[in-house]
Design a protein that fits this description.
Order of helices and strands: HHHHHHHHH
Radius of gyration: 15 Å
CATH topology of one domain: Globin-like
Distance between the termini: 41 Å
Strand content: under 5%
Number of strands: 0
Length: 145
């Protein structure tokens, strides 16, 4: 059996994603974008049950899937989804001393994510989740939420 192409080119795909995310966030380095990505994924993941979180993770490319589940602590009670401004503020507070996220960071991450995933696969996964989870990743025609 051959190694699936998703795994053979995972590192190059991830590097392209990080460069695109850096540009979408208007940051200087992919290291800075990394901190925002962790904050966005953590903010989203905290609001999901394990079943939905794993459903979402399975729809991601291999290295993004790994980032999504790293340091995951399943909560007994997930906080509710909130307004985009409130969720952006949560991302900005994630690792506050090392965070360069700004308002609109979730919209920028969502637009970038959709450029780097199998859209049908991610849409199907989100379609089985609550509306608020789908809204978190919704991107309008201009590339923002």
């Amino acid at each position: 059996m051959t190694v699936p192409i998703d795994y053979k080119q995972a590192s190059a795909d991830f590097d392209r994603f990080m460069v695109d995310l850096r540009e979408a966030l208007d940051l200087q380095t992919t290291h800075q974008a990394w901190g925002v990505l962790l904050g966005v994924f953590n903010t989203f993941r905290r609001r999901l049950g394990a079943k939905d979180a794993l459903r979402f993770a399975r729809a991601l490319p291999p290295l993004l899937r790994s980032v999504f589940v790293q340091d995951w602590h399943i909560l007994n009670q997930a906080p509710p989804f909130a307004s985009r401004a409130t969720l952006d503020a949560e991302v900005m507070a994630y690792h506050r001393d090392h965070q360069l996220a700004q308002q609109g960071c979730i919209a920028a991450a969502a637009a970038t994510l959709w450029q780097h995933v199998d859209k049908q696969r991610l849409s199907a996964a989100l379609g089985k989740m609550p509306a608020e989870a789908r809204d978190f990743w919704r991107v309008d025609d201009s590339g923002s939420r």
